[in-house]
Amino acid sequence: MNILDKVKSYREEENRLKWEGTFADYLNIIKERPEVAQTAHSRVYNMVKSAGVEERDGQKMYEFFGQEIFGLETAIE
């Protein structure tokens, strides 16, 4: 894929995600899908947690970091 195709694809995706509405419309969306209102930190934590969490000796081991990061054994919470 060349750079122009990537730019075109990016623009199409941005247009697909574009939303306009009232605050009441936004609140109705949140009622149906509460994850829409999550903070970035919460989204990242949920992504990490979705890979699996195992508890060993009272400490959480996050499978997300199983092989990608070496030397970080203790979870920082």
Describe the overall structure:
With 77 residues, the chain is mainly alpha-helical. It is built from three helices and two strands. The chain has a two-stranded antiparallel ribbon. β1 and β2 (59-62) form a beta hairpin. The longest helix is centred in the N-terminal third of the chain and has 15 residues, at 3-17. The chain is flat and about 50 Å long. The relative contact order is 0.07.
Could you name the ranges where pLDDT drops below 50 across 5 or more consecutive residues? Answer: none
Number of strands: 2
Work out the radius of gyration: 19 Å
- The number of distinct helices, counting runs of at least 4 residues, comes to 3
Structural class: mainly alpha
Following the backbone from N to C, one meets helices and strands in this order, namely HHHEE
For the report, how would you describe the main beta sheet? 2 strands, antiparallel
Output mean pLDDT. 88
Assembly classification: single chain
Strand percentage: 5-15%
Overall outline: flat
**What's the helical proportion of residues?**
40-55%
Please give the order of strands in the largest beta sheet: 1-2
Distance from first to last alpha carbon = 40 Å
